[in-house]
Every structure is written in C-alpha cells, then in structure tokens.
Amino acid sequence: MGRGDKKTKKGKIFKGSFGKSRPARPAQAKKAKAPVVVQS
Prior knowledge:
Largest sheet: none
Low-confidence stretches: none
Number of helices: 1
Mean pLDDT: 80
Shape: rod-shaped
Strand content: under 5%
Order of helices and strands: H
Helix content: 10-25%
Radius of gyration: 17 Å
Distance between the termini: 59 Å
C-alpha cells in the first residue's frame, strides 16, 4: 500500500482523486451554520 493504492489517502493524493478515504470536502465543512436569530 502507498502511492499507487487508490484506496488509501496517500494514493488518492497521488492520483488527485476523491472518495471515502479522501473526501472532497472534509467532515468539518459539512456542519451547518448557526441559525440566524432575528430580534424585533
């Protein structure tokens, strides 16, 4: 396993692809923003 293995993070960086082991957007980026509270 290593650069040539597309199932590993290092392999995906080498190939320039995304998937389960290397998401295009990290899990932290998927968190929703805090709801906007409008005070009247």
